[in-house]
Amino acid sequence: MGDVIPLRQYTPTYEQAYAPSYGRAYAPAAGPAALRAYAPAEGRTIADRLGLAGLRLTRRGRVVLVLLAMLLLAPMVTWGATAVASSPGEPTEVRVHAVQPGETLWGFAQEVARPGEDVRHAVGRLQELNEMSTGTLRVGELLLLPKE
Which distant-in-sequence residues (6+ apart) come within 8 Å of 28 by Cβ? Predict the structure, then answer.
C-alpha cells in the first residue's frame, strides 16, 4: 500500500470558479463561465412558494387525507339528521289486563277506539303502549289498556 491520494470532491458553487480544497492554486479554464444561480420564472405555483415543489403524495397519504376529510365532514353531514326530542305526550291512565283464551288485540282495539277512529290506528296505539312488535297475544300475558 502506497500513499493515499485524496479524491477531489465536486461541490458546485455559483458565480465562483472551482478551487480544490487541498490548497493547490487553480487556474480557471478558458470556456464558459461558472453557473448562475437558479432564478425561477415569474409563474410560480403555490407548491413552489411553499417549498413543496418536489413532493409527491403517496397512496398512504391519499388514504389519510380522505379519512381526515370524512372525519371533518361527518358532523356537518349528520347535523341535519339528528333527532330532536319533543316534549313527552300527555300521560295515559291505564289498567292491567291478563289475556284470556280467545281474546285478540283487535277486540281490545275495538273497545278502546275513539269515536270515528279507525280500529287499525287503535291497534297501533295499543302495540306502542305495550311495546309490542307484533299483534300476537299469549294467554296469561299482561296487557296495558287505556282507561276510558
Answer: 17, 18
Say if CB 139 and CB 100 are below 8 A apart.
yes
Quickly tell me which residue has 490548497 as its cell. 23
Are the CB atoms for 18 and 26 separated by under 8 Å?
yes
Its pTM stands at 0.41
User: Of all helices (H) and strands (E), which one includes residue 143?
Assistant: strand 142-146
Strands 94-98 and 142-146: what pairing? antiparallel
* Alpha-helical segments (H) within the chain: 46-50, 59-79, 105-112, 119-129
135: confidence class by pLDDT, cuts 50, 70, 90: confident
| Nearest alpha-carbon partner for 130 in 103, 105, 110 | 105
Query: Closest Cα to residue 120, out of 131, 128, 130, 91?
Result: 128
